[in-house]
Amino acid sequence: MLILSIESSCDETSAAVTRGREVLSNIISTQIDEHRIYGGVVPEIASRRHCENISAVVKEAVDEAKISFSDIDAVAVTAYPGLIGALLTGVNFAKGLSLSLNKPLIAVHHLRSHIAANYLTHKDLKPPFLCLVVSGGNTVICSVKDYTDFKIIGQTLDDAAGECFDKAARAMGLDYPGGVNLDKIATVPDEKTYPLPTPKTSGGEYDFSFSGLKTAVVNLIHNQSQKGQTVDVPVLCATLRKKVCDILIDKTFKAAKDTGHTKIVLAGGVSANSELRSRMQKQCEKNGFEFYTPELKFCGDNAAMVGAQAIYEYENGNIADISLNATATMPIDIGVIK
To answer: Model-level pTM?
Structure first.
């Protein structure tokens, strides 16, 4: 089954053609350079660029796959969650394409797609498993019971881990995307020089909170400046990275042991973080668990991962119609609005 997928939830306009877990094309037009001057994504600009780029990106994906539009069996699109204006561009384009081709329309949840990115790298990976999904806007631990059956085990109560990285990096004077640049320059952590708190949560024991940690870094930089002292940015980056990884790993493995999962999956944009990948791998080896994470090229937002999840939504009967609308927020365990 050939699926043409579209992804436009934030600042990447992407289109892909997939056949099951096989990627025939995966085109990504990024806006990083334009948003860098603002220190982060400007939603209005992102939406405009999606409008300008989407037609060419989709055509390039079809051409690279060496197929024609008439060969496509279904059209899939990220419908939620994300920046509403950006999502609407992709959803409306997909609806028009589905209608004109008379092909099924599949609405896909963005976080489900990030998890499905693992299917592109690990062809034999099957549920059930426990997944830590970490991105700029989301941090979730979920039990993946089946390809379209998810249960939230824990989630952030405020800022996501990626948001903490990005905003702390910006306070340190690093360019956007902050989390990526923070990871690149981080050296050796020094928790005595830069003591950072471990935020507590009043919700479930597997829930996260990163707002206070982000604020602690901002306050530390401000206090050092008032004293006329210079912050060792690479060391502070490493110290923050270690603290965030400590929190993510501790809660994920506690959840795994308490729920009986021995297969651990890492997904989302922050799954590209070098320390998180390495330490998750080592922790799984220590516990005798299986560990899976996507290739780096599938960690960020891309349409191939949308197609990887879309096939299972289609098989489960999750077909949308012309009334489909984008939604800025949507829990992963709901995932589909028909």
So the answer is: 0.96
